[in-house]
Design goal:
Length: about 100
Amino acid sequence: MTRRQLEKVYALVRRIEKATAQRGKKTELATFLGTSPQGLNDWLSGRCEPGGEVTLLMLEWVTAEEAKQPNKKRGSALTPPRRKTRKLKSHYEKSSQVRKR
């Protein structure tokens, strides 16, 4: 493969990774492609290469998934929000609050 072709394949893989960020989406894609989830992971990790027909099916699926997302630009997909955590206070800050009360 030429460098330009590899860049396009990597771009497709990035789009698929964004679209499959939700739970169960990789299994859905594997079923659509008629392969196992492990086979799909092998393709996405680069351990083996899918054929041309499978690559076109992946492009079709990811384009349909991106179209389901309202007001999103191409290449973006719905991803779950990150977990929010509280900032922990240091021992010094805790003891200074106790004195103020």
